[in-house]
Amino acid sequence: QVQLVESGGGLVQAGGSLRLSCAASGRTFSRYNIGWFRQAPGKEREFVAAVSRVGGSTYYADSVKGRFAISRDNAKNTVYLQMNSLKPEDTAVYYCAADDLVTTGPGYDYWGQGTQVTVSS
Questions:
Q1: H or E stretch including 47?
Q2: What's the CA gap between 49 and 57, in Å, rounded?
Q3: Which residue in 28, 89, 93, 118 has its CB near the most CB atoms, within 10 A?
């Protein structure tokens, strides 16, 4: 089992940057794929990005390709989501999730509590 805590959200102007962190507990962090999802008010949760267990593969939603970058530091049990060129439509609660099989799908087993990202125009 793994517990996840997101941080780094906040209010930023359009065109700005934020870096989200997902800190995990447990000694088996490296066995999990880690994904970032987001949910805007009135919308369904959607996939944003994912990184494989050993960090060799990364995956992105088309809407964030070229602007967001996901990375992981297994020594620190942390995954990062660097978000650049932010747009108002990136406004959402961002969640990180862990699973030992799933990468881009919704079937992650473990979820954090979320962190709010608000992009003003």
A1: strand 46-51
A2: 11
A3: 93
Strand, coil or helix: 106: coil
Do residues 71 and 79 make contact, with C-beta atoms less than 8 angstroms apart? yes
Q: Which two tokens stand for residue 93?
A: 């609660």
Report which secondary-structure segment, H or E, holds 5: strand 4-7
Contact (CB, 8 A) for 117 and 94? yes
Alpha-helical segments (H) within 1-121: none
45-97 pLDDT, tens per residue? 999 999 998 767 999 999 999 999 999 998 999 999 999 999 999 999 999 99
Nearest by Cα to 73 from 108, 35, 30, 103 = 30
* Residue labelled with tokens 């799933």: 102
Which DSSP letter does residue 31 get? G
Instruction: Measure Cα distances from 53 to 1, 29, 43 in Å.
Output: 15, 8, 29
- For residues 40 and 48, give the distance between their C-alpha atoms in angstroms, rounded to a whole number: 12
> For the chain, what percent of residues have pLDDT higher than 70?
99
Structure tokens at 73: 């530091």
